[in-house]
């Protein structure tokens, strides 16, 4: 049977590369609250993920072979909506996928870790320290409970080199307004290139369908939020100037200081996850 992939969150940052990459793995249908905002070249459908009945209708109509649940609500968009999409909608998708025999790949987050017990293995027990992390963990646990054959992909900060990411865009706007910008030089992450994450998700949806449970998919380079932020600002030609200062995050309550993760399961599958320095170097060599 030819692959038919249903992608939620098809208007989000991840989707701008996930959708065109997914077309290399099969037919792609993308959903978003407004169909016109779905990235091309997916077939577009409108879907309100807060409406459980609508979720069921869309999945039953599309009858995909796989679902990549990439939709998520980040902090700042309302707690009720965040829990509704990250947790409850994920559970509904798992229910209908289980009933129809559909492969489900859930895009989870490193935010389910507190940052107090790094490095985190693929099967590390989550211990979230904020509502966003709690909502993603709840969604992850619901999906795996309802549909044990599914896989939850715990990922990190997502960036690309063709479209500016939300965090770096925020830095640009703040500096443009003349406001000070502080970057944490002791808060560790493993940012993931949107292209390598997209390929990993598509392969898990169509090729590695026997992979279940949780797995980390993060970049193969540990760096501080400050180093990452400055690297992205340099790529996007954002002048840092004197308004940027490097500070410690250790005194900030709830700060997830160290979210280093191991990716043994991904590496065993031959999934490549280059670090930021390697991706930037390849981009530089390709453009010069």
UniProtKB/TrEMBL annotation:
GO MF terms here are:
dTDP-4-dehydrorhamnose reductase activity
Q: Does the keyword Coiled coil apply?
A: no
Q: Cite the annotated pathway.
A: Carbohydrate biosynthesis; dTDP-L-rhamnose biosynthesis
Protein name (database record): dTDP-4-dehydrorhamnose reductase
So which domain of life are we looking at? Bacteria
GO annotation terms (biological process)? dTDP-rhamnose biosynthetic process; O antigen biosynthetic process
The coenzyme or cofactor needed here is:
Mg(2+)
| Stored Pfam families | RmlD_sub_bind
- Write down the EC number: 1.1.1.133
Q: Which reaction does it catalyse?
A: dTDP-beta-L-rhamnose + NADP(+) = dTDP-4-dehydro-beta-L-rhamnose + NADPH + H(+)
- Any keyword Plastid? no
Task: Identify the species of origin.
Answer: Leucothrix arctica
Provide the family line: Belongs to the dTDP-4-dehydrorhamnose reductase family.
């Amino acid at each position: 049977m030819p692959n038919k992939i249903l992608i939620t969150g098809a208007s989000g940052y991840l989707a701008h590369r996930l959708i065109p990459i997914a077309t290399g793995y099969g037919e792609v249908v993308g959903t978003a609250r407004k169909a016109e905002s779905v990235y091309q070249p997916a077939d577009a459908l409108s879907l309100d993920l807060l409406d459980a009945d609508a979720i069921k209708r869309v999945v039953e109509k599309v009858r995909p072979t796989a679902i990549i649940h990439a939709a998520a609500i980040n902090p700042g968009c309302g707690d009720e909506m965040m829990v509704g999409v990250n947790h409850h909608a994920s559970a509904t998708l798992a229910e209908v996928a289980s009933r129809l025999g559909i492969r489900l790949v859930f895009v989870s987050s490193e935010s389910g870790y507190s940052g107090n017990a790094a490095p985190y293995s693929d099967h590390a027990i989550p211990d979230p320290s904020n509502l966003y992390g709690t909502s993603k963990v709840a969604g992850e646990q619901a999906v795996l409970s309802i549909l044990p054959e599914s896989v939850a992909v715990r990922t990190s900060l997502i960036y690309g080199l063709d479209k500016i990411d939300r965090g770096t865009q925020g830095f640009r706007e703040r500096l443009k307004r003349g406001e000070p910008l502080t970057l944490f030089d002791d808060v560790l992450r493993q940012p993931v290139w949107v292209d390598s994450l997209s390929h990993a998700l598509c392969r898990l949806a169509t090729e590695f369908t026997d992979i279940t449970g949780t797995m980390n998919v993060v970049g193969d380079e540990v760096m501080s939020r400050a180093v990452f932020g400055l690297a992205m600002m340099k790529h996007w030609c954002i002048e840092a100037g004197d308004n940027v200062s490097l500070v410690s995050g250790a005194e900030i309550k709830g700060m997830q200081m160290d979210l280093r993760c191991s990716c043994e399961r991904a590496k065993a599958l031959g999934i490549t996850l280059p670090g930021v320095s390697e991706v930037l170097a390849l981009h530089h060599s390709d453009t010069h």
